[in-house]
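Components:
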Amino acid sequence: MGRTDHLQGALDLLILKTLEKGVNHGFGITLHVQEVSEGLLRMEEGSLYPALHRLERERLIQGEWRTTENRRRARFYKLTAVGKRRLAQAESNWQSVSLGIQRVLRSI
Amino acid sequence: MNWIWTRIKRWLNRDNEWREEIEGHLAMRQEWHQARGTSLEEARTLARKEFGSPLGAAEKLRAVHIHPWIETLLQDLRYALRGFRRSPGFTLLACITMAIGVGASTAVYSVVDPLLFRRLPYPHDAQLVSLGYFGPIDNNEFNVVSSYLDWQHYQKPFQSITSMRPVEHCDFLAGESPLRLDCYRIEADFLRTFGITPLRGRDFTEDDDRPDAPAVALISYGLWRRTFGGSESVLGQTVTVDDHVTRVVGVLPESFEMPQRGDVDLMMPERLDATLSRSQNSSSFLRTFARLRDGVSIEQARAQMQPLFDETARLDTPPQLRSEVHLVLRSLRDRQIHDVKLASWMLLGAVLALLLAACANVANLLMARASARRRELAMRAAIGASRSRLVRQTLTESLTLAFAGCAVGCVFSWVLLRVLVHLSPEGLFRLQQARIDGRSLVFALAASVSAALLFGIAPALERPRSDSLIAWSSPRPTRTLSRRILVAAQISISLMLLTGASLFVRSLWKLETQPLGFESEHLVTASLAPPTRHYPSPAARTAFFNELEERLRRIPGAGSFALADSMPPQGGARGRPYSNLLIQGHPPVAHNGGMVLFRWVTPSYFETMHIQILAGRAFIEDERGAGESPLILSASLARRLFGNENPIGQHIDLELSGRWSPIVGVAADVKNDGLTEAPSLEYYRLRMKTAAPPDLNVIAIYRTSLDTPTLSRWIREEIRTLDPALPVTIESMEQRVGRLREQPRFVASLVTLFAVLGLLLAAVGLYGVLSFLITQQTREIGVRMAIGARPRDIAIEVQKHAGIWTIVGIGAGIGGSLVLAGTIRGLLFEISPYDPRSLILAAVVLTVVAVLAALVPSWRASRIDPMLALRSE
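Structure:
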């Protein structure tokens, strides 16, 4: 994400959206964002965990230790009901913001 | 519960968990790179590079997890401390005020806590009661064996009822040196009723309590350590108690206390004998205690015991006394503290009032500071500090102040407690046992925190107003109003304390200067109690007393000397019912006359004590050889018995014995029932050379110009020659009288101390408010002076401000004093709690102090330079 780090909302949105598809761990989220955005978006991995923990504190996601397919212990995160509601809000919010920004960009 | 535990474990383990999560991530990334054909080394480097600094991540994680309020708290604390450093004068004043309030109240709390609040050291202590007859004979309820045996048999409300004999001294011999101990005879189930088991050995059994059982004893923890060095081998050891061989069967726990809080060294079975006749058992005295059944209240128990009591009272009390005794059944705590209960509550109330005044003062200081910082607070609100954030900030400040005040206050309370112990070393308050313990510290902390909330809440709720950002807005009137109300409240509290102090001091003064009926100066007394078993026969006793008198009289330069068996002004003299007196040739006296005290004295008693003989004559030496012991009546007894008739030459039968004693004189009344009670009826009997009085207690009285230590050396020497094992207590009459004044003196000095502190606080409060008002109105005053006001007008204006609120405070204080006055009536001697002179005195003192406190600010106001005032701001 690089530059957009200070737009915390964007990072949260990506995390929540990724978890909407199903339970995942931190590395899985990084990978998913990278693949789906076809390499356009790369998360700064060091910032991912503080964000995950903050979201967990806010009860938007819930973490649990489980074993991966490769028999490795990892903390899996799951979207909570509150998280789902927040995601819907954030998505529509983001869309209107990005629409607005696009319009501004085009007008020049 | 479980999830809390899980959370705590997670919280403790969180660093490990974070590390594991991050390391897992790195490993998965590394595997991902390796799966794409990168070498192991390269994959590891790439993974680390992409992740960034793991330490930085951990740091950010920690920031997420630290509770935000801790951060805010630390921030607030730093801010508060910075503020205090900037205004050291304010901080010091607030701290000292808090320390005075908290310190004084903690010291008093630690004195009254063991009396009023502490649990008694027995399991289920609320179930324990003391019960018995209450009559003019004793200050506490007592019982007689015959009634007690019936109660034990027929009572319903108690799980168990038990008894003990009043304390007696016993001579104890274990090894070499004899000891004189405080001994009790208790019933076998005494300790069990109180829920106490011996620390070592066993309790008494029913078999121990039979009249013919072998002698056994329980010893106190103190005696065990002192005499037996705490050795286990004491159990089963035999000792000598009053010449009887006795086996020690157990040791009492260290924390054991007698239910009436007496000292105890040794306990022996009581051995009541139900086979004795009712009349024998009805003149044998006991103390009775009981444990209520579950769910039975004291009132219910009293109601259930009443019929039984009436029945036994009919059998066991002489008909003349019957209407003067009644049943008393009260909680053990009330039994223990009945003589200091009122004083304890009063002192606690007074000191809490002082604490309240201190709170008002600190609140005032804080509000003054808050108004000075109005603009700063408004600024902070304007740039986005939320209301709750500002309130929290202000409360943090007051709590910090409170904790500082609490710490200093604890030190102060410790010092104050030492002073109190010095004031009343052996008094009724048992100050030796009072100390600053955990409970006192909890009290101090609770007092500080509630004080902080009390004085912190008002300034915290002041809403910062944006218009205070504009420089020339003047303070809102309501704000100064609340400050003035606080000052008025302080003044009224101070007035109440002053009124109380002046009442107690005047009452003490009356107590100290009242005529006792004799002169206590230059009197030295020596009291002895020879054990009965050393002088078993009347002849042996007579010989002993005659020799004692001869020896003590011989002391050179000792002055005038007399022997008596008891002395005023304490109670404790022997007494008998008034209704037992028979006058020769007169109809029987009225019933219900209460008790009449009497003493056995030698002829020089009246001369030595300086008791006036009002009619007839004193006893003379020549009468002591033969015949019936003559009588001298106290003036009030003579009046009661004979009215206007001349008592001299009349004869009285004192104990329904058929022996008639001649009345030879009438003596002036003396204070003989303590200092506060009116004199009791009293008569004197002459100690004959031919027959000693039945009471072995004897007091030698000297009116002497020798100093007490010299005389006491002589006395001890004489008595040692007579009986080396006989202990003597020697003290001056002033010491004896002083002991009776200890409680009033203690109460008076303490309340006076509180009143002075309260006055000081009120003065500081008033001074503070006025100074603040003047600073606030500097500009206004400047304008008025510029347009022609004279400095004198300004000064009067300020004084008027002070005057109004002082008058309001004094008015409220007088009202409060009148409302509360009735509650302290029992603590005052010969002075009405509504005594107008005390109220007026308090009001005058306060007014003078208020004027003085207003003097400096008003002088400063009158010196304001209009030019400077207008240019400022």
